[in-house]
Amino acid sequence: MKIQIACQDKHEASKLASLIFIRDGKETYISSILNVFDNEVVVALKDKSAHSIVLKDDYQVELFADFIQSVLDGISQIIDTKAEDDIVEITKG
User: What is the pTM of this model?
Assistant: First the structure.
């Protein structure tokens, strides 16, 4: 399954793509969603740090949260991420 998430800008898209998936280890680095503020998502990483990612709007936040939940629950895993301009394409299997 693939989804495209629109971020506020190219920098936020690059940040999301790098935080969500580590290519070398084929692992998801996000461990949970800590909070949501309008179009901003605060995520916890496996190293216990927290980071905010600003998406285009609150609809994108809802799409991302719904999509990533099965990954956080261990049901699915991220296979690939690709950032192009302000869009991040996330593939899970």
Answer: 0.90
- Give me the count of residues in the chain: 93
From residue 57, alpha-carbon distances to 7, 21, 41, 63 in Å are 8, 22, 11, 10
Per-residue pLDDT of the chain (93 residues; tens, 9 = 90+): 999 999 999 999 999 999 887 666 667 889 999 999 999 999 999 899 999 999 999 999 999 999 999 999 999 989 889 999 999 999 998
Cα 35–chain centre separation: 13
* CA neighbor of 89 nearest in space, from 59, 57, 63: 63
